[in-house]
């Protein structure tokens, strides 16, 4: 059997304070620190804790050249332990699955630091609302109580700055001011399919296509994309749309069609809650759009590029803002959130790890006439200020 180290990894020294009774009895402060070494790898969802000797041994292993299993019993035991942890891979058929997963990351053209960031920041089975409630960090007042006042909302003004005119007759202003994140959806009213189709046409549909070389095609959409690659795909969780069975769909931007996925969840509502990491105020939206990046499309051009992952997150921002604008113009409410369980999305839509991945979830639907969850609308454009149900500036959100 031959082995080698995984290619993309980092070692993070961790220090956690702990109570030291012996220190108190000896006249000390009673505070000691527990130290450990965590190894984070781009092909592993969870960090691995190892001791200093194993860490040094691991760092001395080649990530490129295969090495034979050492004959020394202790060194052999170290290799087998690190193999079980997934920090080493081998050509032994017994470890074929682990080797294939790590090889997929090697072949993906990720910039190593971005790969580590994406993998290690993905959530699985996280309930962000429960976490906020447990730590009493639900409202802005909670945050101030725990963290103190935030930095100023704007930097200091520059002396002598030139005042700019404001235009009261700006035709875009009313629509822009009506844009507010919706947390209250009307569950008793179905969304007409033509409205959903219009939003998809305005935001995600390919408006034109050009083939620069055989098999090399670029799309023109109403949103910008780095390198004109448009690597984002929309997977839809349809809850309440006229003429459509609830379930999971994929939107094809070139054909402008919705294809129902063959694999459907047994409990759509439960999946919706899990995807949204417990954000129940978004779960009533008529449609969820899970923005999934085909990283291989982006990395075809931007190979091992330090800015590539940043570019696709900007792409997601462009799409979400365009969706807000489109939904608002059509009289709908919309939202976007990055507080999602990416691993759950990967399982639900059959995504290939590190080759495809969810970045954010958008949603849209009819606004409810009753405000049960706080929304940030200080100008009162959505909820009139005189209305006791109106905007609540105390809301913090996840």
* Global Rg: 25 Å
CATH architecture of the largest domain: 3-Layer(aba) Sandwich
Number of helical segments?
Answer: 14
CATH H-tier superfamily of the largest domain: NADH Oxidase
User: Which structural class fits the helix and strand makeup?
Assistant: alpha+beta
Beta content: 15-25%
Question: Structurally, how many domains make up the residues?
Answer: 2
Helix and strand arrangement:
Layout: E1 2-5, E2 9-19, H1 21-25, E3 31-41, E4 48-50, H2 52-60, E5 67-68, H3 73-85, E6 88-90, H4 96-106, H5 112-121, H6 128-134, H7 140-147, H8 173-177, H9 193-203, E7 208-213, E8 216-220, E9 232-238, E10 247-252, E11 257-260, H10 268-275, H11 280-283, E12 287-294, H12 295-301, H13 308-329, E13 333-337, H14 342-349, E14 356-365
Antiparallel strand pairs: 1-5, 1-6, 2-3, 3-4, 7-8, 9-10, 9-12, 10-11, 12-14, 13-14
Helix pairs in contact: 9-13
């Amino acid at each position: 059997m031959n082995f080698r180290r995984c290619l993309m990894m980092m070692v993070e020294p961790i220090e956690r304070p702990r109570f030291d009774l012996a220190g108190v009895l000896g006249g000390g402060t009673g505070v000691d620190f527990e130290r450990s070494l965590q190894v984070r790898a781009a092909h592993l969802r969870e960090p691995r804790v190892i001791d200093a000797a194993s860490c040094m041994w691991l760092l001395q292993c080649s990530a490129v050249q295969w090495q034979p299993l050492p004959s020394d019993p202790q060194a052999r035991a170290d290799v087998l332990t690190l193999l079980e942890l997934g920090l080493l891979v081998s050509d032994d058929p017994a470890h074929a699955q682990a080797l294939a997963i790590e090889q997929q990351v090697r072949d993906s053209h990720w910039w190593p630091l971005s790969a580590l960031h994406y993998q290690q920041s993905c959530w699985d089975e996280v309930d962000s609302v429960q976490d906020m409630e447990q730590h009493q960090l639900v409202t802005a007042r909670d945050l101030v109580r725990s963290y103190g006042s935030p930095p100023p909302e704007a930097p200091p003004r520059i002396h002598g700055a030139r005042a700019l005119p404001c235009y009261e007759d700006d035709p875009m202003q009313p629509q822009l001011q009506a844009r507010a994140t919706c947390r209250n959806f009307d569950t008793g009213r179905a969304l007409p399919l033509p409205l959903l189709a219009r939003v998809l046409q305005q935001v995600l549909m390919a408006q034109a296509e050009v083939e620069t070389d055989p098999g090399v095609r670029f799309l023109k959409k109403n949103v910008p994309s780095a390198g004109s690659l448009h690597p984002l795909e929309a997977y839809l969780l349809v809850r309440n749309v006229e003429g459509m069975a609830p379930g999971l769909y994929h939107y094809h931007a070139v054909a402008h069609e919705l294809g129902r996925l063959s694999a459907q969840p047994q409990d759509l509502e439960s999946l919706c809650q899990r995807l949204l990491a417990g954000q129940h105020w978004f779960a009533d939206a008529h449609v969820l759009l899970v923005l999934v990046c085909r990283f291989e499309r982006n990395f075809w051009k931007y190979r091992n590029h330090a800015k590539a992952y940043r570019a696709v997150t900007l792409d997601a921002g462009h799409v979400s803002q365009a969706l807000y604008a489109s939904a608002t113009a059509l009289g709908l409410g919309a939202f976007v959130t990055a507080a999602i369980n990416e691993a759950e999305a990967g399982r639900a839509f059959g995504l290939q790890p590190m080759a495809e991945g969810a970045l954010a979830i958008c949603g849209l639907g009819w606004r409810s006439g009753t405000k049960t969850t706080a929304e940030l609308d200080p100008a009162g454009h959505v909820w009139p200020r005189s209305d006791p149900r109106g905007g609540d500036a105390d809301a913090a959100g996840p």
